[in-house]
Amino acid sequence: MLRSIVTHLLRYAAAVWVASLVVFLLLRIAPGDPAEIALGVGATPELLADKRAQLGTDQPLAVQYFSWIGGMATGDFGVSLTSGENISPLVADRAAVSAILVTTAMALAIAVAVPVGTWAAMRRRHADGIAITAASQIGIAIPSFLAAILLVTVCAVHLGWLPANGWVPPAADPLQFVRRLIMPTVALAAVQSAIMTRYVRSAVLEVLSDDFIRTARAKGLSLWQALLTHGLRNAALPVMTVAALQLAALITGAVVVERVFVIPGLGSMLLDAVITRDLPTVQTIVMLLVLATLAVNFAVEIAYTALDPRLRKEPLS
Question: Domain ABC transmembrane type-1: where (predicted)?
Answer without folding.
Answer: 95-300
